[in-house]
Design brief:
3 strands, GMP Synthetase, Chain A, domain 3, three-stranded mixed sheet, elongated, 4 helices, alpha+beta, about 20% strand
């Protein structure tokens, strides 16, 4: 009985967040936080900035070699980040 109540409360919270326009900013925050987990501390140490605008993740990488390497794997990174969050938060990645 309690498990069913917990699921209903979770559903109510998700509905409230969606209705109040809080779901998207929360998912964007989660995606940015997931960068280090998904790509690891090595790549994260070369990451100088992350932000999302219009479903595009902008990533500043300080190493030109790593920047090129990540650019070639953008589609895989995009898929892994969205999967980690559990929602399609971004549709494009710009690595600069």
């Amino acid at each position: 009985m309690k498990r069913n109540d917990a699921e209903q409360i979770g559903l109510l919270i998700r509905q409230f967040m969606r209705r109040e326009g809080l779901e998207s900013p929360l998912n964007e925050y989660r995606l940015i936080q997931a960068w280090k987990e998904v790509l690891g501390p090595g790549i994260s140490s070369y990451t100088d900035g992350l932000h999302i605008k219009n479903q595009t993740l902008y990533v500043h990488i300080t190493s030109p070699v790593l920047r090129q390497e990540l650019s070639m794997g953008r589609d895989r990174i995009l898929k892994n980040l969205n999967h980690h969050v559990g929602a399609q938060v971004i549709t494009n990645i710009v690595i600069y």
